[in-house]
Design goal:
Rossmann fold; alpha/beta; five-stranded antiparallel β-sheet; 18 strands; 44% helix; Helix Hairpins; 4 domains; elongated; five-stranded parallel β-sheet; Beta-Lactamase; single chain
């Protein structure tokens, strides 16, 4: 079935696909849904942009109905080739995208695969019925039996060829509460799985379940342990530990063939899961940034009114020493509020910045003048500056505040004392304008666990005890770096400690050239 609101497109696509099978056309999503109530289809070619009901909404209705949920959908689109739109289409159940203007050969080839699969499914169903009839009739003549076997063998070979071309691994398995799930690979492409997973399926299939992360094992066990009968299905996504890298995300789908036996497939969905997490994180930070920026601006207006009142009282009122102390405390509290507003605005990427040249040595003296009172002899600061002929191009006050926060964080990470190492240099292989100069702040503390390393720049997330941190320091630093045209990187070296690296634009001192 072809769904497109343009009659010309329908005519052209029908001409391309008419040789494959009978083609049914629809000019709207509603017409397509009505056609699906009457007929079954091998594949649906669905235009993304249509009036009233677009392709995504139509695909959603198709996937909600059990009778049509498994029909392959290929989206047709003239625009929206960005990853987020493609991911949305695949999330709605699309198996592929074809972009307009359509290449007739490509479209014909893609549609032919699903038509063949549809015909193959029908053929297999018919063969199964034929086998039942043959068994009930005590088999036909020997010549007919041999012919049917040859046809069935050809069908199996075609099916195996199609399955081997798909990016999945096929397995047989048995399940028991004592032994868990024991898998044996029977087909598919092991190379479709990444590195360690492919090797384990080849060399040590019996211990596959041992590599599933502990927190995901109950979900896998419950999926296979739930009471069900022959033909019921299991589907579970879990994380699989690798030897020396981040875990893989695997999608396992299976169908029960008897009381203990299953057959199924394993698909590596690591890239898709990471993209989903990145998209969700970006949406969260964007929404929180907008909220934070609005609150910070309103709060700043209130502080301005309070500060003006304090200054007016100081000029027009004769205060004794104790009253003046109270007024000074109020002014200090307002100053702290202003600093907090700046941190919030830096996180929200709305802090007005005044970038100018600041050489590394000046920055070092400025920071040490502010931080000396917060550090004692148990926290020596080791500075290494190797970029004297370059200067940062950033807001000096905000850069100083960011570096000050990183030093305080390093101090707090080492309650027993330790050296704080600060390096200012040029990256070994600068590739973009964001790599002009970098600042590396490293401590000798216990480091940050790998499972929360990606979360430490989230607003209000802190590893410090309650009352010891706001969770805005690293998010403010990340916001400042991004707004300045740079970036912030955090790592936990294997030998311990935490390493925070900020890359910022810079310029040569002698020629005033941006880097």
């Amino acid at each position: 079935m072809i769904v497109d609101d343009d009659e010309r497109n329908l005519l052209a696509l029908t001409e391309v696909l008419d040789s494959l099978a009978e083609v049914v056309t629809a000019t709207s999503g509603r017409d397509a849904l009505r056609a699906l109530l009457r007929e079954d289809f091998a594949v649906i070619l669905l235009d993304v942009f249509m009036p009233e009901m677009d392709g995504y909404e139509t695909a959603g209705f198709i996937r909600e109905r059990d009778q049509t949920a498994r029909i392959p959908i290929i989206f047709l689109s003239a625009v929206n080739k960005e990853t987020e739109h493609l991911m949305r289409g695949y999330a709605m159940g699309a198996v592929d995208y074809v972009f307009k203007p359509v290449d007739a050969l490509v479209l014909h080839s893609k549609a032919a695969v699903f038509v063949d699969l549809y015909k193959l499914r029908r053929e297999i169903e018919e063969r199964n019925r034929a086998e039942i009839v043959l068994q009930e009739a005590k088999f036909r003549a020997e010549e007919q039996r041999l012919e049917i076997e040859r046809e069935l063998q050809a069908t199996r070979l075609r099916q195996a060829a199609i399955l081997n071309s798909l990016p999945v691994v096929l397995f047989e398995a048995t399940y028991s509460e004592k032994d868990g799930l024991r898998r044996r690979v029977v087909g598919g492409d092991r190379s479709a799985l990444s590195g360690d997973a492919a090797a384990w399926l080849r060399d040590d299939e019996a211990r596959w379940e041992d590599q599933i992360l502990a927190e995901d094992r109950p979900a896998v066990a419950s999926e296979y342990a739930k009471p069900c009968g022959k033909g019921d299905r299991a589907s579970v996504r879990y994380r699989w530990a690798t030897a020396d890298g981040p875990p893989l995300y695997l999608l396992e789908q299976a169908v029960r063939v008897d009381d203990r036996a299953w057959v199924g497939s394993i698909t590596d969905v690591t890239a898709q899961s990471l993209l989903e997490n990145q998209l969700l994180q970006a949406q969260k930070l964007d929404a929180l940034g907008q909220l934070t920026g609005g609150v910070a601006h309103d709060f700043n207006n209130l502080l301005a009114a309070v500060l003006g009142g304090i200054q007016l009282l100081a000029r027009r009122t004769n205060l004794d020493q104790s009253q003046q102390a109270i007024l000074d405390q109020m002014r200090e509290a307002v100053d702290q509020g202003i600093a907090l507003v700046k941190s919030l605005l830096a996180f929200a990427r709305k802090q007005p910045l005044s970038p100018t040249s600041i050489d590394p040595e000046t920055l070092r003296k400025s920071v040490m003048g502010l931080v000396d009172h917060a550090l004692d002899t148990t926290f020596p600061v080791d500075w290494t500056v190797t970029a004297e002929d370059h200067a940062f191009f950033a807001d000096p006050s905000q850069l100083t505040l960011v570096l000050l926060n990183l030093i305080i964080n390093a101090r707090d990470a080492m309650p027993g004392g330790g050296t704080i190492s600060i390096v200012i240099d040029r990256p070994s292989e600068p590739s973009t304008s964001a790599d002009g100069l970098r600042i590396v702040v490293a401590d000798e503390g216990p480091g940050i666990p790998a499972e929360i390393l990606d979360k430490v720049t989230e607003p209000f997330f802190t590893t410090k005890p309650p009352g010891k941190g706001t969770g805005l320091g690293l998010s403010m630093a990340a916001g400042f770096a991004e707004q300045s045209g740079g970036k912030l990187l955090i790592s936990a070296p294997p030998n311990g400690g935490t390493r925070v690296e900020i890359k910022l634009p810079a310029r040569r001192v002698d020629c005033d050239e941006d880097l």
